[in-house]
Specification:
2 copies of one chain form a homodimer. By secondary structure, chain A is mainly α. Chain A has 2 domains: 10-75, Orthogonal Bundle (Arc Repressor Mutant, subunit A), CATH 1.10.10; 81-128, Diphtheria Toxin Repressor, domain 2 (Orthogonal Bundle), CATH 1.10.60. Helix content of chain A is 66%, strand content 5%. The first copy, chain A, contains 6 helices and 2 strands; from the N terminus they run H-H-H-E-E-H-H-H. A two-stranded antiparallel ribbon of chain A has the order 1-2. In chain A, a hairpin with a 5-residue loop joins strand 1 and strand 2. In chain A, helix 2 packs across helix 3 (42-54). The longest helix of chain A is centred in the middle third of the chain and has 23 residues, at 70-92. The A-B interface holds A 90, 93-96, 99-100, 102-103, 106-107, 110-112, 114-115, 118-119, 121-122 and B 90, 93-96, 99-100, 102-103, 106-107, 110-112, 114-115, 118-119, 121-122. Chain A binds a DNA duplex through residues 9, 11, 30-32, 40-48, 62-64.
Chain lengths: 133, 133
DNA sequence: TTCTTAAATTAGCCTTGACTAACATTTACC
DNA sequence: GGTAAATGTTAGTCAAGGCTAATTTAAGAA
């Protein structure tokens, strides 16, 4: 159970999440694409990938794409789910998609489990009581 | 109009807000009390106060309490309002007071104006439609 | 008044996470 | 296959924001 005590920094969470998303979209997560997507330079990505490797969350052959380990996959999935929940939540409140996406990105790293859980409940209630969509 | 373009870091916002709160509660904001309240050491407070002085948000005589400038007062007030709005919002969702307080503290530094505005609307609607309290 | 203690400050260090510049490798095109 | 361009890596710098240790000032007790 190496996942329970693992607490990533905000920025590492962002990198891990982006690896996951790029692999989902493109089948591969290249340093260049990560750097573009997160608006940082390539050396910053390289450094972050090193960290994630040390933590056993990704693997990477030099000069090749970044792969997710079993643990990395699981964790990235959790993070992405949090992101999607928060984005949906904000949009229910009437926030525009672009802003919802941006703010979800910040919120996903800082909210406590309790708050996330209550937000989940709210989103579900909202769905049931049937808004327009 | 020196307030419009002024964008504090998260940590400076925390310090400024705490000065405001302590002065409200105790009449004086001492370095020691700020340090205790924010769970940092006194030298960190001293450094932050220096920054806030440079920005013209606080004044301070050596070895005395921290005072707020006109601008500092206004800004601190805004930050605290954001905090209170978010705390109330989370509690409406069913989050416990302690957690609401903690998460409001993190959220208050990162949310966009649009999201804050929508949250404000939600809280008001909620009040009208009359929940239990 | 003097001495002890608490509070505040200063100096200097450390980590995180970005950056640029320089170098290495791979890819792609001729 | 050889070379230009794109991609990846390494080395070293910087700023923010913490910290400890050492010093200075203020305050309170003997």
């Amino acid at each position: 159970m190496p996942l329970a005590p693992l607490k990533l920094s905000q920025s590492l969470e962002d990198y891990l999440e982006m690896v996951y998303m790029l692999r989902k979209e493109n089948g591969i997560a290249r340093v260049k694409d990560i750097s573009t997507a997160l608006a940082v330079k390539m050396p910053s990505v390289a450094k972050a990938v090193l960290e994630l490797k040390k933590l056993g969350l990704v693997t990477q052959e030099p000069y090749a794409g970044v792969e997710l380990s079993k643990d990395g996959e699981k964790l990235a999935h959790q993070i992405l789910n949090r992101h999607l929940l928060l984005k949906l939540f904000l949009m229910k409140l009437g926030v525009s998609e672009a802003t919802a996406n941006k703010d979800a990105c910040s919120m996903e790293h800082i909210l406590s489990a309790e708050t996330l859980s209550k937000i989940g409940i709210f989103v579900n209630e909202f769905r049931k009581k049937g808004s327009s969509k």
